[in-house]
Design brief:
Largest sheet: 9 strands, mixed
Pfam families: Peptidase_M17, Peptidase_M17_N
Active site: 280, 354
CATH topology of the largest domain: Aminopeptidase
Subcellular location: Cytoplasm
Function: Presumably involved in the processing and regular turnover of intracellular proteins. Catalyzes the removal of unsubstituted N-terminal amino acids from various peptides.
Distance between the termini: 42 Å
Domain Cytosol aminopeptidase: 348-355
């Protein structure tokens, strides 16, 4: 679908559909009021008859509005005006796109992007509308041969801005939104692929193709090269599968100084997780194809950052393999040596994600990074703690945790800062090795993060446990693309700081010099 940014009055749009908002009090948005005045109160009359109350997410399609040039007007419920915030805005956008796909309109102009949300600017409004639109239109049906419905989406969607002077900011928002949306779609495609297609080699090939198309550097390490790196812990997981492992390394140098310390993203790439010898229950095991969603979101975030040409240096690392139970597989009680030299007693082979991540985190040291963030569907315990709403967030620096949490709040991709206290490290003590790979049921997500923290002493590090947020089950089953929005916003904030811009959450970004006369708030 083609996106466009435009400034203009709604009653003058010669288009198949114009989208405007209605609050729960039946109060019309500014654009809806202009249409209503042109139509001599037609919309107000419809609302008075009770056909729509303006509840959030409801829609009503009107045809042939008097004295207007458009074929249709789509009314979208905005809920209570005093409660209309970022979350409600995204929901209204999503509802409008779903309703639009049920019509035959091949192009539309949305005036929801002109709504007023306190502390959010035009760039943000357009960016979020674009991301939500692409997310709503996303489909994964490439393996269907029967009952496959043709995609119904408009050929062109124009997002309106209030003034002509807002067009430049709107275009910036569109570029950002498209990059984030493309990154999310890339991550969702990889996550939704079945394990017999998305193998470690396939994942490596997709990463290589993506990086080369963007002009980024790429290195793919095969099993022999991984062994030469002495990643014994990583390889111990891979040896249970007939599918050979791959270690993926992508590099993007967008900073003016190519020697500037990079940010490193590390993604868990277990393309199928049977649990190994500690075999998982059969029910729901098909969803273990999603155990590489950490890798998928790291690759999607890398793609978005490069597409946006962010002025920073970025590295993406993905240890990719399967966790399967053959005669060579890890056994409970085995001891392996990590790239760091530390030894691990494996008590449960289904706690394999940390075994591949620890070597990748040690490998990250060679880049002398400013920050390392790993992303992993690591523990079922995180789902018990936080459900499917918030990502578990751990960090060895509270300031880094605050940065990530604020970035997530800004884009509706929320995380919750969890404790990483030394007392939990006691649960990882082993009588036979430097540590064991599980700490028991109590605080399982926390002890998993504590395990990873032992390999991150050389840099600022954060861990995102996305076991509860990477995919959905049930009728809406599928990968979510989270936390691509959070990671890209974090990277954008870091880029703004590098450029000397002030990151003022929820407000327009301005140069430091512009703030000289501001009050200190």
């Amino acid at each position: 679908m083609e996106f466009n940014i435009k400034s203009g009055s709604p009653e003058k749009q010669r288009v198949a559909c114009v989208i405007v908002g209605v609050y729960e009090s039946r109060k019309l948005s500014f654009a809806a009021d202009l249409l209503d005045r042109t139509a001599n109160g037609f919309i107000s009359d419809v609302l008075r008859r009770g056909d729509m109350e303006g509840k959030l997410g409801t829609t009503l399609l009107l045809h042939s509005l008097p004295h207007s040039l458009c074929d249709r007007v789509l009314l979208v419920g905005l809920g209570k005006e005093r409660e209309f915030r970022a979350k409600e805005y995204r929901e209204a956008i999503r509802a409008s796109i779903k309703a639009l796909t049920l019509t035959s309109a091949n192009e539309a102009v949305s005036y929801l992007t002109e709504l007023n949300i306190k502390k959010h600017d035009v760039e943000w409004m357009i960016e979020q509308a674009t991301v939500v639109t692409l997310d709503t239109l996303y489909r994964f049906d490439q393996f269907k041969t029967q009952g496959k419905e043709p995609a119904k989406e408009p050929r062109k969607l124009t997002l309106a801005v209030p003034r002509r002077s807002d067009l430049a900011d709107g275009e910036k928002g569109l570029v950002r939104g498209l990059a984030i949306g493309h990154g999310m779609s890339f991550a969702k495609d990889l996550g939704n692929l079945p394990g017999n297609v998305c193998t470690p080699r396939y994942l490596a090939d997709q990463a290589k193709s993506m990086a080369e198309s963007l002009g980024a550097e790429v290195n793919i390490f095969d099993e022999a090269a991984i062994a030469e790196l002495k990643m014994e812990s990583f390889l111990s997981v891979a040896k249970g599968s007939d599918e050979p492992p791959r270690f993926i390394e992508l590099k993007y140098f967008g900073a003016k100084d190519k020697n500037e310390k990079p940010i490193v993203l590390v993604g868990k790439g277990i393309t199928f997780d049977s649990g190994g010898i500690s075999l998982k229950p059969g029910e729901g095991m098909d969803e273990m194809k999603y155990d590489m969603c950490g890798a998928a979101t790291v690759l999607g975030s890398f793609r978005a950052a490069v597409e946006m040409k962010l002025p920073l240096n970025l590295i993406a690392l993905v240890p990719a393999c399967e966790n399967m139970p053959n005669g060579r597989a890890n056994k409970p009680g085995d001891i392996v040596t990590t790239l760091s030299g530390q030894t691990i007693e494996i008590l449960n082979t289904d706690a394999e994600g940390r075994l591949v991540l620890c070597d990748a985190l040690t490998y990250a040291e060679r880049f002398n990074p400013t920050t390392v963030i790993d992303v992993a569907t690591l523990t079922g315990a995180c789902i018990i703690a936080l459900g499917h709403i918030a990502t578990g967030l751990y960090a060895n620096q509270d300031s880094l945790a605050r940065e990530l949490s604020a970035a997530g709040e800004e884009v509706g991709d929320r995380a919750w800062h969890m404790p990483l206290w030394d007392e939990y490290q006691e649960q990882l003590k082993s009588p036979f090795a430097d540590m064991q790979n599980i700490g028991g049921r109590p605080g399982g997500s926390i002890t998993a993060a504590c395990f990873l923290s032992r390999f991150t002493k050389a840099y600022d590090w954060a861990h995102l446990d996305i076991a509860g947020t990477a995919w959905k089950s049930g009728k809406d089953k599928g990968a979510t693309g989270r936390p691509v929005p959070m990671l890209v916003q974090f990277l954008q904030d870091r880029a703004d700081i590098a450029l000397g811009n002030v990151v003022r959450r929820g407000r327009p970004r301005r140069e430091v010099s512009e703030l000289a006369d501001d009050d200190a708030d």
